[in-house]
Amino acid sequence: MLKDKILGGLYGQALGDAWGMPAYFDPDQTWKAYGWIEDFLPGPDDHEVHGGLPACRITDDSEQAFSLAQAYIAHGGVTLEASIEAIVAWYDRTGGDQSRYVGPSTRRGVQALKRGDDPYTTGRMGDTNGAAMRVSVVGLLHPNDPMGAIEDAHISCIPTHNTSVAISGAAAIAAAIAVAMRDDATLDAVIAAGMLGAEIGRQKGNPWLGPSVTRRIEMAVNIARKGGEPRAIMRELYDVVGTSLSIVETVGAAFGVLVMADADPRQTAIYAANLSGDADTVAAIACAIAGAYRGIGAIPQEICAKLDADPIFADYHVPQLAEGIERLATKSS
Ligand SMILES: [Mg+2]
Q: From ligand 1's centre to the CA of 17, what distance in Å?
């Protein structure tokens, strides 16, 4: 059912984001501090970005994704104006100028937008993973329509991440989710859609330096499918694919943990969190795909209940967002 997949994508995004939030930048550091992360945990006090956050708290990834969903529903679809409105409103609401949570491309883009610059120029150097962390809703709006998802992923990137490498990463995720929405989707088809989206997205935007997202997805999937002890696979993903703010690394790693977990949302979150690095973003992306693929029924009820009980998550009224997305998705298909 479409609604179950939309809810799965939205709750999956939040599950991964909040689950990965407490992870440190390096797996050894995470494993030393926590052992093996198997639940929602608070941000450790010495964490550079997430120190002091309570367990089960979402971060910028889901807040921006849900803000985009609100704006696209209000505007009747994905437009440049709605994308700008959502990102600037989110930035102001979270005190962006002082906030630790704003990524480098988003900060540069929003500050240029506020100066009144042409939005087709404000993202011309944005090459980090913010483009992919918030794009899941674009995929949810295009069930079984990867080409439409790629076009709209491009639009969502323009204000802050208008580079070939960032659009490639965002288009990969949007296309993968669009195909994951099919009732008869297979994980192979989802991965293939991600690689197709990456390839087409790479032709768009300001030509920018960076390796191929398509090849990095392929590399991560191959590492994940080699089999073996999960910690050894994750160490290889961390060392070879990478989990930094680079969108090429983030998107590749997300497909790696997705395949390791066979797209089970909770298991995907466990692998992504323990993989460390920009874990909340890798996990948010991977779990959004997993949730859209498996549907809301694959996310344990107590996880959804914990998210619903968090005031920041509750403030986005995710079940209402799912209704709005379903309305739009069935109108345009
Ligand atoms: Mg984050």
A: 7
